[in-house]
Amino acid sequence: MADAFPQALAGPSSKERKYDRQLRLWAASGQQSLEESRVLLVNSDGPWGNQSSGVTGVVGVETLKNLVLPGVGGFTIVDPAVVTEPDLGLNFFLEENCLGKSRAGETCRLLRELNPDVEGSSHAKPIAEIVKEDPDFISRHQLVLISGPIQRSSLDMLCTAAKDNGIPVLYTRSVGFTSTFSLQLPDVFPIVETHPDPETTQDLRLLNPWMELDMAGARVTNLESLDDHEHGHVPYILLLLHYLHKWKQSHNGAVPSNYKEKTEFREMVRSGARTNTPEGGEENFDEAVAAVMKSLNPFSLRSSLREIFEMDECKNLRQDSAEFWIIAAAIHEFYKKDNLLPLPGSLPDMKAQSADYIALQNIYKAKARKDIEEVVGLVRSIEARLARPVKVSEKDVEIFCKNASHVKVIHGRNIPRLDGDARTTKIIKNNLTNSDSIISLFLAFQILDDIVTDIQQGNAPDESLDNDAVWNTHIDRAIGVITSDNPADIDEEARERIVQATQELRRTEGGELHNTSALTGGLVAQEALKVITRQYVPLDNTCIFDGVRSRSEMFKL
Amino acid sequence: MASADSATRWKYLYKALSKPGPFSDEDWVPGSETISALESSKVLVIGAGGLGCDILKNLALSGFKDIHVIDMDTIDISNLNRQFLFRQADIGKPKAEVAAAFVEKRVKGVKITPYVGKIQDKDEDYYMQFKLVVCGLDSIEARRWINSTLISMVDFDNPESLKPLIDGGTEGFKGQARVILPTLSSCIECQLDMHAPRPAVPLCTIATIPRQPQHCIEWAHQIAWQEQRKDEPFDSDDMEHIGWVYQTALERAKQFNISGITFQMAQGVVKNIIPAIASTNAVIAAATTSEALKIATSCNPYLENYMMYAGEDGVYTYTFEAEKKADCPVCGNLARKMTVDPDMTLEVFIETLGERPEAQLKKPSMRTEEKTLYQRFPPQLEEQTRSNLKRKLRELVQDGQEIAVSDPAYVIDFRYRLIFS
């Protein structure tokens, strides 16, 4: 560990000081991933007919703002639009003298002012043209952001190219008071550092202590002989081990296993506390009593991890398997040995003398270290078997071991659409029958996108956007798609919810409001950060925000 | 209002304000009247930091023309990862002034009036001029102060005296936005126990049996500094001071074989740093300003009354109506029940008030209807009541008796009914 002393006198670097508040969330490793990433924003795809200059793209620019500030490596803005008056009433990263200039260029310039560490470039052409001239354009980015609607053909091209290159896509729509966005991840997207609540990762092994811990517990023999001070400072872990030992003696070697037995056991612990103290009790015994119900549970593998062990990628390793799978397979082997994961090794704080606590902590740390070494050994033999040229770093094995119980794999799905796969349609239909759900907004956005595509492709006049008959036809068509098997599935109330959702979108004729786009830009940037740093758990896969009722809902579409 | 020019510029906003939606109130009158009401609304923003920068931008781009902003802080390098109105060259300047000037320059036609100072500097007449107040603060104490001030301003004969308070707060990937209609809906004080402070480490642990790196840092900060540098006031922004605490904590940790202290951690513990990122601030700030727009124009129903957001695992929000409490010490008319051990001394009771989630009062003075139990100021009264500190509660009050507690941080008295356990 080189970080402690040399740096101590100088204090943190100016970069560490600038990013201090975020480094506390994703650490230097997350920051590095962020700085190595370049994000592509496709912010519009040309005008909607003659009357509207098209998507104002505020939500895209607001998303970038929240990525430029924490120091993303770079960004590229693709936007063929020129800056018009309505842009100035909506977009903070445009000013008076931008009128008539390229919106891509101007937003890029003003976004770059936010952070001199970030590189930015812009293209004032439609994405389809750019890709035609430069087929590798998309693959030079690590994330694609799209503010829709864009032409169906452009969206398909972007999503396919991104998928082929393993690049995640965030597709966002923001209109009036409402918005929706979806995340398309690669087919298999593993996350090691999911940052679960520390309470849920605690693994104390009290029911099945390893030898050193068992011995530490056995050294607590004659509690009665201790003076009050000593008695009140025996770490609660050792108290529990001690009383478990006593319990086993009177229960044929069995540990308390059901609620009734645990309640009895808890009373046994409680009765050991001295009450003739000035405080009327002992804190360490209080801690022990409080821990009985949550800490005396046999280990069970979480279903998400069981699933990972059963995945083809884990069972059939190849020479070029991702490192994640090499470590996962090694941990699976470790698990098969005695149905336990590597010990995370952390110990909660508890009432204890300093030296006693540190000694106990060292027992946990040593065991964790030993487990890591064992997993490293398993990794090395897998590597040898597969003749892999590059070794997985021990640091990565260690991080995996510490997070093993909550490691997660997301199975990426495509950007959803109404006429997409049957599963998506079914989920939409099921939610439509729930009067509390805001899924109707998703349909409203799909309908708006269809109308805009018709205008953009010259199949409908500009006025369609404000034509009741056109909207009604599209609503009927959408309901038809969802209910192809049984029209009776959608009742009048559900239809009314869809109509209301479209009415709210039609209030601004498809235009954005700054607040909604700012809020959505925050949400989308949050997901982008999780995807880029591979920390925390990203959306799977669609979120709808309803600013009328100030609420949101997630769907797996 | 609306020149042809501004009608083009504010096209989409004006559309939203000129057409009823499926959820807008039946009696709402869309159009120019609503637009004028918005543009003539004077609003106050408290805080020009992480949330404040976004709030100012959002209000300016929501059509508000007359915005005031209060903040006492100056710009620090650690603000630059999210407070996007500030640049490297602004470090050391007052946040309120730099933020106001930036937004005024960027958004044509908006007037932003900064005040560099404390909210407590201003009186009721000042707060009375605003249509509504939007708060982006990191201090519970300041929130409680503005909450109680706005509640005490309500005059039931004058509807204009009721100033909606829209409050935002963030921590890491989490945050919340809430709307408070003073005296009519659940207030900051009603919800106080939802935002309990982290329990403090007992002093005896810090002084004699440290086990965690944090305990060693607290020792260096609270005890060693007093012993070795007591003539210098500790300044958590002074890198030399933090460096000293770090080094001193390291030595103590070494003595107890405790590992894991870093400079960053020392700074975090001493300054009680809360992680903060641009994206969470963007979400919460826009949630508050969206409510401000809805309240100022009635174009859609406003939040009743609390939305929480958590972004660690997907996108999770929960919107609910927090309860208005009849025994809220600020907006209720009943004293709040507080269970106490009657054998506790008054001194210990006073100490616990700092940490009890429903009180969180650091420097309380208190009295019953008949007598003063303890009074910090003036000194003569303190001396007269000091002897009560060592007496047990049962000697001073009866089971179920009401006490009034005052604290220099707040304008009002808090009423509690003490129930003996």
From TrEMBL, chain A:
Keyword set includes Lipid metabolism: no
Tagged with keyword Transcription regulation: no
Family matches, as SUPFAM superfamilies: Activating enzymes of the ubiquitin-like proteins
Domain called THIF-type NAD/FAD binding fold: residue spans: 19-555
GO cellular component: cytoplasm
An individual GO BP term: protein neddylation
Function, in words: Regulatory subunit of the dimeric UBA3-ULA1 E1 enzyme.
Similarity annotation: Belongs to the ubiquitin-activating E1 family. ULA1 subfamily.
Protein name per Swiss-Prot or TrEMBL: NEDD8-activating enzyme E1 regulatory subunit
Naturally occurring in which organism (per UniProt): Aspergillus campestris (strain IBT 28561)
Automatic annotation (TrEMBL), chain B:
Reaction(s) this enzyme catalyzes, per UniProt: ATP + [NEDD8 protein] + [E1 NEDD8-activating enzyme]-L-cysteine = AMP + diphosphate + [E1 NEDD8-activating enzyme]-S-[NEDD8 protein]-yl-L-cysteine
Key word ATP-binding present: yes
GO molecular function, one term: NEDD8 activating enzyme activity
Residue intervals of the E2 binding domain: 338-421
Biological process, per Gene Ontology: protein neddylation
EC number: 6.2.1.64
InterPro entries referenced in this protein's UniProt entry, alphabetically: E2-binding, ThiF/MoeB/HesA, ThiF_NAD_FAD-bd, Ub_act_enz_dom_a_sf, Uba3_N, Ubiquitin-activating_enz
Keyword ATP-binding in annotation: yes
Pathway in which this enzyme or protein is active: Protein modification; protein neddylation
Keywords for this protein: ATP-binding, Ligase, Nucleotide-binding, Ubl conjugation pathway
Entry coiled-coil feature ranges: none
Similarity comment: Belongs to the ubiquitin-activating E1 family. UBA3 subfamily.
Name by which UniProt lists this protein: NEDD8-activating enzyme E1 catalytic subunit
Organism: Aspergillus campestris (strain IBT 28561)
